């Protein structure tokens, strides 16, 4: 990260190819465009770029007070999914007598062109602008020279005819690029896909990632590129197979089918009586958490192997296992606080298609939703080395009460007339979650309601 002395000298100078100074703290578009432009480094200098918030162009500080909210707002730009591929950046606050300065240091991307909401921004001297076609070509060639991941390597023996071109044109490109850019762009489909890292112009063929995402027959070239669902009777693989399904097409179609399958066949919502006249709907496995675990397995798996993603359901749990263990910077000690991507271009495409909403926070949300549903937290098996497994238990197979339910019981014991809204505020949960846990406690006979909903009380 930049030192304080170097920052002083930069602020005292003028804006340049590597520096942008602003006193605004609200213009998120301006910040993102600057970070995108620094990431692209169209000149190829290899130097880091600096977005300096709290300084005027003439070098004077604005008297800004950097608070935690502003720090969080700027830091979240890296993982909010609007800049793809994700930028490599650090954010740091500096204190001066005249005020605070917030500095965003951005490293040039190894996989340009980097886009902000479908548009490529570059630095032209001391200002930023949209990239020309020639500049995008330079960045695309630089991306090709930096290829390291399997999903970006050419799938030799394939042609553009092996892809579902109709889907790409109608569904994918309008989401990957802005409407104005597509209307003005005169490049071929191959050149457009190459800027997204899913077509190799040197060999004139799609990449492995393109075949996985849009291929007409992905298994012909990548035999393990499918998801295998099996429902076993009992608690291990020795039981009879009750149901099985193979999701074997390209991801752009199969992810939608998987999404529906989880909601209708795995989540299995059912009514649970809360009182004589009312019922609440609960799920065996919460839809979003189950979906997120499976989408992560598809996104992070090793596609060089012939093993599919295994989605197995037993009487007491579900297991999601993908080939390939923890990748890159991620280790057992720092998971899930650190993220890295085995398939960055597949991850980028899944974000564009709407199957990944935001990077680096999915596991936290999964654990929260599972706890609120009564499943308890998912466990992760790191011992397999060449594979990664997530395990979620059914609510019925867990102890008589969960941690949240124990807290509810303590609250009821101290205040029998406590309301659902008060419980939700006390335990930092949604009212839906409180309703679900109260229903479970009633069904188990641990508590009951005495009197009306408005004036009654809970009885242990």
For the structure shown, list the relevant keywords.
460 residues, alpha+beta, Methyltransferase, Cobalt-precorrin-4 Transmethylase, Domain 2, Heat Shock Protein 90, 4 domains, 6-stranded mixed β-sheet, 4-stranded mixed β-sheet, 16 helices, 21% strand
Structure description:
This protein is of the alpha+beta class and 460 residues long. The chain has four domains: 127 residues, Schlafen, AAA domain (Methyltransferase, Cobalt-precorrin-4 Transmethylase, Domain 2), CATH 3.30.950; 75 residues, no CATH class; 171 residues, 2-Layer Sandwich (Heat Shock Protein 90); 57 residues, Winged helix-like DNA-binding domain superfamily/Winged helix DNA-binding domain (Arc Repressor Mutant, subunit A, Orthogonal Bundle), CATH 1.10.10. It is flat, with a radius of gyration of 26 Å.
